[in-house]
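Deviations from the work plan: none for this task. Representative record:
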Amino acid sequence: MIHFDNICKRYPGGHEALSQINLRLEKGQMAFLTGHSGAGKSTLLKLIAMIERPTRGQIFLDGVNLNNISNNKIPYIRRNIGIIFQNHHLLYDRPVFDNVAMPLIIQGYRRQEIHKRVRAALNQVGLLSKEKAAPITLSGGEQQRVGIARAIVHKPLLLLADEPTGNLDPDLSREIMQLFSRFNQVGTTVLIASHDLDLIEQIGSPMISLQDGKIIDNGLPFSVGNQQAMAEKNA
Amino acid sequence: MRNTSHKNSRIRSYFAHHMRVSLASLGRLYAQPVATAMTAAVIAIALALPVGLYIALENVSQISSGWDGSTQISLFLDSRVSKAEAQKLQQRLEKHKDIRKIELIDKEQGLTQFKEVSGFGDALKHLDENPLPIVLVVQPETGVNQPDITGRLVRELGKNKQVELAQLDVQWVKRLYTFLEIAHRSIWVISSMLAIAVLLVIGNTIRLDIQNRREEIEVAKLIGASDAFIRRPFLYTGLWYGIIGGALAWIITLISLFMMKQPIHKLALLYHSDFRLIGLGTDNTLLLILISCSLGLIGSWIAVSRHLKDIEPS
């Protein structure tokens, strides 16, 4: 599903956020991305979502080389991805339902279909009763769940989450992570950046550790790309 | 079969989406009535001004259009020439092959006409004697109504000792037409400048709108909205400003015309004219709305293409 081939990302000013990243996440897998802040977790996710472009190397998403995607085709790549942020990026000028419906409206779904899917998504995150509520009236955990509903409403192949539990207490965090596990069980590929090691261990999914822009520990099952990465690490 | 119905529903949903976006844009304008009204008023005034000038010019052209063919030569006689001498001259000149008819306006007639037309009648009372000369108004043969022949006739008549000044009346008509031509050009210049002003006003309004909705644009881009999708509500906002501004400009023009109608009618009566004020007409009204809509769209397009690029998720 995701394949990083010798990726480097250098920001203007010379800071190298990622160097020589080789990584392969198969379809239907779930993995965590860990490391201290500044290790390059967010940059790695941004490269997949095409918010940033790599300085060197190639990224394949579902077999498509992202280097070959022109800027005006980026939206169509993003439609296959559900992105969840730490600060959930909800729009406070409209109710929960409208927030969750956004990806479907963008993709031109019909009204009845939108209603059906939004309800289903809200049901999955346990917020069906709040569809008419203003996001500002919801608790932090509920707002995060609205963000998740918005990320899954269009049934993306891949879910990316950047510190989704950053602002939440341990119980709520576990609940959110279990939600991700459930999506993974129905076939969605999931990649979560988090520094909450205790929680990650409870879930038991493989863990990719980043430090100073390099992979220092790749807990993914062996595959060609990962073997390469391990070999480079040991050399 | 299933494919076509799917395609149809896709197209239907596309139009439904456009409908929704345009109404949502209108709703946003309605939610801020004061700001919207002010912007629309600026647009309307900027549009109504050239429209008003255009109407004024059309009306002046209408008045002057009848004067083109009627060339007259006025012979202002020397003030020492008596009426009897003038009549003799009139009879003599009427035999000229290029002259069809001559009308004599003596001093008293001239004074009465001048009083009627100029409104300076009272001032003339203070003069000791009538300062106006006798005038012979010469109508050339219709066949010789060509510039060079009439020109020769004017020169010939001017050589006569009793004639102080021979003036081809077509000259001031020509001057008027030149002035009208200049006015026409000026209206174009003014209209172009005001059109640019409208573009800037709409562009600036849309730019502020984009800034206010920055977060929404970022989120939309992150979840895969195409540029067209993000542009759409802003283009509709520009279009609505164009429609509202154009309609307001039309109303302003109507009110102004209504206010001018009475005094102009009075003035026309004073000149014994059946002059009627020309309004904007259906064609020109549609043209006005079309232009204002285009300006709205173009203005918002400029703002959108300049500023949407700057907003990228980070």
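The first helix of chain B runs from residue 2 to 31.
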